[in-house]
Amino acid sequence: MRRILGILLGLLLIGGVLYVALQGREHPRSTATKTVRGVIGSEKSDFFRDPDVVKALAAKGYIVKTETSGSWAMDQLALKEFDFAFPGSSEPAKEVAAAAGLKGAQETKPFYSPLVVIARPEAARVLAAGELATMTGKNSGTLLMGPFLKAAAEDRTWQQLPGSSAHAELTGTVFVKTTDPASSNSGALFLAATSNVANGNSVVSDDAGIERTAPLMHKLISVQGALETSSDDPFRAFISGSGEPLILVYESQVASLLLQKQNPGEMVVLYPDTTVNTAHTFVPLSDDAKELGALLATDPRLRELAVLRGFRPQDGVAEFTAATAPHAGYLNPGLTGIRQVGTPTVKILMALAQRAKG
Fold this sequence. Notes:
By secondary structure, this protein is α/β, with parallel strands linked by helices.
C-alpha cells in the first residue's frame, strides 16, 4: 500500500510540475515594471499596437498605452494626464514641451519619414502627360512641385491636362488632399514645402514672405473642402478604393503596408521633388517615460520593428533600404533627386495655416 501511495504521489508531483510549466508557456510573465500613457500621431498607432513591439517593450520594462491626436493639437490637451507625447515632427514637440512647462526636455527623434503623394495610376499618368510629374516606374514617380503649384495657381482642372478625356473619374480642379494644416503635422509640413517653392525656394521667414505665399496656400487648402485631422483615415479610404485621386501621406504608411504584405491595390507613389522630412519627436512628460525615447532610438529589436512599420530609423538608411528592397518598385529609399528643405518657425507656419484655411 505504501508503495502504491508513493507512486501516486510521484505522479501527482510530476503532473503539477507539467501543469505549471504549461501555464507559464501559455501565460508568460510580463517583465514590465512601468505602465506609461502617451499621446501619439495616428501614423504610429500600428507600431505601438504591433504584438512584437508590445513584447519587445515589455522585455525592457514598459507597458505602453496610447491615444491619438493631431500633432499640432497636442499642446492643447491636458498633458498632465500623459507620460509622453510623440508628435510627427520637432516643431509641435516644442509647443508640447512649452505647454507642459518643461525646460530642457530630453527630446528624442527615434525615426523619421518623408511625405509622399499616393495617386491612382490613371491620375499619375495624366500628371506625367501634363508635365506635372515624372514616372520612374509603373508604381513610382516624382511630383514636380514647381509645375504643380503653377497649375494650382491657375486653377487648372483635370480636363485641361492631356490624356484626361479617357478617364471620366478625373474631374474638377487638380489638387492634393491633405490633412488640416492647423492641427495635423503632415498638412502643416505640406505648407512648409509648398511655401518654400512659392517663396523662390527659400524658407518663409517674415510677414512679407507670408503675404507672398498665402494666396497660393489658400488655393491649395480651400479647394479640398472638409479637412481631416489625421492622415490615417484618408490613407485607408484610398486603399479601400475611395477618396481623392491624389492624397498626401507619410512614406511610412505605404512602406508598412508593403512590408506587412498587405495588398496596396492600384497605387503609384509620387515623391514631391521638394519635401520636408518629418522627424517623429518623443517628448517625455514624466520621469517614468524619460528613458523610453532613447530606447526606441537605440534598441536593435525596436529599430528593426520600426522599419517593418515603414519608418526610417535615425542613421538607418541602410536598414530601411535592405528591408524594403523587395518593394523598390514603389519606394525611393535613398530619396534620389529629392530636395529636402527646412521649415518656417512655429509662429510663421501657423500663420500660413490660418491664412490657408481662410
